[in-house]
Specification:
The structure holds two protein chains of two kinds. Chain A is mostly beta strands. Chain A has strands spanning 3-7, 11-12, 18-25, 36-41, 48-53, 59-61, 69-74, 79-84, 93-100, 109-112, 116-120. In chain A, a hairpin with a 4-residue loop joins strand 7 and strand 8 (79-84). Chain B is mainly beta. Chain B contains no helices and nine strands. In chain B, strands 1, 3, 4, 7, 8 and 9 form a six-stranded mixed sheet that branches. The chains are: A mainly beta, B mainly beta. The A-B interface holds A 37, 39, 46-49, 52, 60-63, 96, 101, 106-110, 112-115 and B 2, 32-33, 35, 37, 44-47, 50-51, 56, 88, 90-92, 96-104.
Chain lengths: 122, 110
């Protein structure tokens, strides 16, 4: 059963860059054409899609965050990563990595990581 | 302000049926599939419905989805206290080239 696990600092200072990694286990990123995604959820609020990437490195970004976000994939480590620059308190959220239910699809995420809470504070 | 509009809350008694609506536009629901997620307190979302009305394996048949025009609907029959959760709709928006979600609906089973 494919599993996803987020990792990264739980606390980031304002104006700095948030960096998270999602490790994929029991399945190779490079063996399929899935769009691996990042989604976040501020405390008490709804879901917001951030970005997705496929194994070739093709990227797709939420227009509202695009100027600050970089998503990348490392097939040798079976990981994909997120960088969000110039963070503010509004970026405080639980960050999830997720995979859609079939290849070549951006939505309908059926496999999720457990989520990692990232707080932005000095 | 979410691209997709859901009612903030719905409630019903155990054993009853409840529906949750998700309203969008031609650039999202009108021309793309709707998905539904269940998020129990403190856990990651779980895919309940995809492609408007398909259930992943393990998703109970008490949950069903439908779509008409630019709106989607999630129906839950035989409500159980364990169904208390937040429910989100989602889809692809072709104009934004982005995955979009509704603001979420909190279900209370009275």
């Amino acid at each position: 059963q494919l599993q996803l696990q987020e990792s990264g600092p739980g606390l980031v200072k304002p104006s700095e860059t948030l960096s998270l990694t999602c490790t994929v286990s029991s399945g190779a990123i490079s063996n399929s054409s899935y769009f691996w995604g990042w989604i976040r959820q501020p405390p008490g609020k709804g879901l917001e899609w951030i970005a997705s990437v496929d194994y070739t490195g093709d990227t797709y970004y939420n227009p509202s965050l695009k100027s600050r976000v970089t998503i990348s994939v490392d097939t040798s480590k079976n990981q994909f990563s997120l960088k969000l620059s110039s963070v503010t308190a509004a970026d405080t959220a639980v960050y999830y990595c997720a995979r859609p239910e079939r290849e070549f699809r951006h939505d309908a995420f059926d496999i999720w990581g457990q989520g990692t809470m990232v707080s932005v504070s000095s | 302000q979410s691209v997709l509009t859901q009612p903030p809350s719905v409630s019903a008694a155990p054993g009853q049926k409840v529906t949750i609506s998700c309203s969008g536009s031609s650039s999202n629901i009108g021309n793309n599939y709707v998905s539904w997620y269940q998020q129990l307190a403190g856990t990651a979302p779980k895919l309940l419905i995809y492609d408007n009305n398909k259930r992943p394996s393990g998703s109970p048949d008490r949950f069903s989805g439908s779509k008409s025009g630019t709106s989607g609907t999630l129906a839950i029959t035989g409500l159980q206290t364990g169904d208390e959760a937040d429910y989100y709709c989602g889809t692809w928006d072709s104009s934004l080239s982005a995955v979009v979600f509704g603001g979420g609906t909190k279900l209370t089973v009275l």
